[in-house]
Amino acid sequence: MTVAVYPGSFDPITNGHIDIARRAAGIFDRVVVAVYNTPPKNVLFTTDQRVAMARAALADVPNLTVESFAGLAVEFARRVGAQVLVRGLRAISDFEMEYQMASMNRQLAPELDVVCLLTSIQYSFLSSSTLKEIAKLGGSIEHMVPEAVAQALRERFTRDPEPPPVPRYLST
C-alpha cells in the first residue's frame, strides 16, 4: 500500500489544493492531507478551522484523511507510514522553491520520494495569500474555494471589530 502525505498550511484550502489532493488520491492508495499547525507566516484561521475546512471539502474522497501536524513534514510522513510527499506546482517560480525543499527533505529522509503534480490550468493563478487579499477587499472568491470556505472568509473579513476605547484624557 502506497501512502502519500500532502503537507501545507491550507490557510485556507482552495480549489487548487482540492484538485491536487483529489488527483493524488487517484494515484496513491492512501493520502493524508497534513495541515501544518505552525507555519512560518501569519495565518488567518486556526489549525482546527483549517483542518475542518479541508475535511469538509474532501469528505467524499474515501482514501483521504486530513490531520494536523507539528514539526518536520518528513517526520510526520514517517509517523503515518508514508513513502511519498505530494506537492503542487503552479508556475516555474514554484519549481525553484519546491526543488530546494525536495532536496532538503531527501537529505532528511532519503526513503521518501517527492511527487509534484502540476496544477490544473484553471487554478494556476490561485494562491491562498492572493485569495485572502481579494476576500479582504470584498472581491468575488466563490469560484476559487468551496462555499463553506468562501463563507468563512466573508465572516472573517466582515466582522465589525469593536473600536478601541477612547483614552479618558481625550474624552473630556
Key terms:
single chain; 172 residues; alpha/beta; Rossmann fold; five-stranded parallel sheet; 6 helices; 5 strands; 40% helix; globular
Arithmetic mean pLDDT: 91
How much of the polypeptide forms β-strand, as a percent range? Answer: 15-25%
- How many E strands? 5
Span of the ends, CA to CA = 72 Å
Structural class: alpha/beta
Named CATH architecture: 3-Layer(aba) Sandwich
Strand order of the largest sheet: 3-2-1-4-5
Sheet of most strands: 5 strands, parallel
Instruction: Provide a count of the helices.
Output: 6
Tell me the domain tally. 1
CATH domain fold name: Rossmann fold
The CATH class, by name, is: Alpha Beta
Shape: globular
CATH homologous superfamily heading = HUPs
The Cα radius of gyration reads 18 Å
Order of helices and strands: EHEHEHEHEHH
> What are the segments in which pLDDT stays under 50 over at least 5 consecutive residues?
none
The helix content is 40-55%
Overview of the molecule:
It is globular, with a radius of gyration of 18 Å. It has one domain (3-158): Rossmann fold. The protein starts with a strand and ends in a 14-residue tail after the last helix. The mean pLDDT is 91. It has a five-stranded parallel sheet, sandwiched between helices. The protein is built from six helices and five strands. The chain is an alpha/beta fold. The longest helix is centred in the middle third of the chain and has 17 residues, at 92-108.
Write the layout of secondary structure elements.
Layout lengths: L2 E6 L6 H13 L2 E7 L10 H11 L6 E6 L3 H7 L4 E6 L2 H17 L4 E6 L9 H9 L10 H12 L14
